[in-house]
């Protein structure tokens, strides 16, 4: 992995963020017609109290940034907490970081056992590239039968684009998919040269114009918690809370757990889905241990 990979990502991220700001938003005069949207490089440089040449070199991936400059740029570009953390990680000044990931994370027996014990709660385990590496019966019943998808294609982001059923499942498919892309970018900040990620991004960029556009936006988000509206083919509308729990034995893995308030229609629907999934006629099972 080359250090320049980080610098190139840093430059693209800075360009994407300045393109979203107007002079008025940062207290500058309009300055007349603009060839492209957003702030000019020289305007960002003035606000960050650095030279235009220095800032241009940052965007071109030709030099690293000091912590003080990163802090100034984060303020100038109005970055939120996730974006600020991402910026700092991209701008880290260590000269070389060897790849730290296995080609595909593997799940420990204890984790699979915990998933299997969650009889009424949908859950699956996701890696930084959105690889689905484990799930329980309810997770498969809620989302899709992961076991039927070849491992090399078992990426959540890929399924969102390639499987028409996933587009029907999520009421706000675009919002869910944009968030998944932003999360994938954030959770791979430390591995810009990751070959598996590059292969996945390349495949989707060729196959889908929306992915290509949304990946190029350089938005970032951390997997944490939220609410999603699902239109399930068996039990109907579901309004589910989701939480991402990091597995301490392998921090690259997160357990996505779906829950609903006790006594709510969605809670009752999950109980119905559990009974449906337990019926041998439906042949839904958890992931291999």
Please provide a written account of the structure.
- GO terms for molecular function: DNA binding.
- InterPro entries: Cro/C1-type_HTH, Lambda_DNA-bd_dom_sf, MLTR_LBD.
- This is Transcriptional regulator.
- It holds the Pfam family HTH_31.
- By secondary structure, this protein is an alpha+beta fold.
- The chain is built from 13 helices and five strands.
- A five-stranded antiparallel sheet has the order 2-1-5-4-3.
- The longest helix is centred in the first third of the chain and has 16 residues.
- The chain is elongated and about 65 Å long.
Outline the secondary-structure elements.
Elements: H1 3-18, H2 41-48, H3 52-59, H4 67-76, H5 81-90, H6 109-116, E1 123-126, E2 132-135, H7 137-142, H8 156-162, H9 164-169, H10 173-186, H11 195-207, H12 209-216, E3 225-232, E4 236-246, E5 254-259, H13 265-278
Antiparallel strand pairs: 1-2, 1-5, 3-4, 4-5
Helix pairs in contact: 2-3, 4-5, 8-10, 11-12
Pfam families: HTH_31, MLTR_LBD
Domain HTH cro/C1-type: 34-84
Protein name: Transcriptional regulator
Q: What's the number of extended β-strand segments?
A: 5
What Rg do the Cα atoms give? 21 Å
Helix content: 40-55%
CATH third-level topology of the largest domain: Beta-Lactamase
Number of helices: 13
Estimated structural class: alpha+beta
H/E series: HHHHHHEEHHHHHHEEEH
Low-confidence stretches: 94-99
**Largest sheet data:** 5 strands, antiparallel
Q: What's the CATH class of the largest domain, please?
A: Alpha Beta
Looking across the biggest beta sheet, what order are the strands in? 2-1-5-4-3
* Quaternary structure classification: single chain
Q: In whole angstroms, how far apart are the ends?
A: 33 Å
Number of domain units: 2
Mean pLDDT: 88
CATH architecture of the largest domain: 2-Layer Sandwich
Give the strand content.
5-15%
The coarse overall form would be elongated
């Amino acid at each position: 992995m080359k250090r320049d990979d980080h610098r190139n990502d840093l430059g693209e991220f800075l360009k994407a963020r300045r393109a979203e700001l107007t002079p008025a938003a940062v207290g500058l005069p309009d300055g007349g017609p603009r060839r492209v949207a957003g702030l000019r490089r020289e305007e960002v440089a003035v606000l960050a109290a650095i030279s235009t040449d220095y800032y241009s070199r940052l965007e071109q991936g030709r030099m690293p940034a000091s912590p003080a400059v990163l802090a100034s740029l984060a303020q100038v570009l109005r970055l939120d907490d996730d974006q600020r953390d991402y910026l700092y990680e991209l701008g880290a000044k260590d000269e070389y970081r060897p790849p730290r990931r296995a080609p595909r994370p593997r799940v420990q027996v204890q984790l699979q056992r915990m998933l299997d014990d969650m009889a009424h709660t949908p859950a699956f385990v996701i890696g930084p590239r959105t690889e689905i590496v484990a799930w329980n019966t309810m997770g498969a019943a809620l989302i899709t039968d992961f076991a039927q998808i070849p491992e090399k294609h078992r990426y959540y982001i890929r399924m969102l684009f390639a499987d028409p059923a996933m587009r029907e499942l999520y009421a706000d498919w675009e919002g869910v998919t944009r968030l998944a892309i932003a999360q994938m970018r954030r959770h791979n900040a430390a591995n810009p040269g990751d070959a598996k990620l590059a292969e996945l991004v390349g495949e989707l960029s060729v196959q889908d114009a929306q992915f290509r556009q949304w990946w190029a936006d350089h938005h970032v988000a951390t997997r944490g918690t939220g609410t999603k509206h699902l239109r399930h083919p068996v039990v109907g509308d579901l309004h589910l809370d989701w939480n991402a729990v990091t597995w301490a034995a392998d921090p690259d893995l997160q357990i996505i757990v779906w829950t609903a308030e006790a006594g709510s229609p969605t809670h009752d629907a999950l109980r119905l889905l559990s009974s449906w999934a337990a019926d041998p006629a439906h042949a839904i099972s958890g992931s291999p241990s």
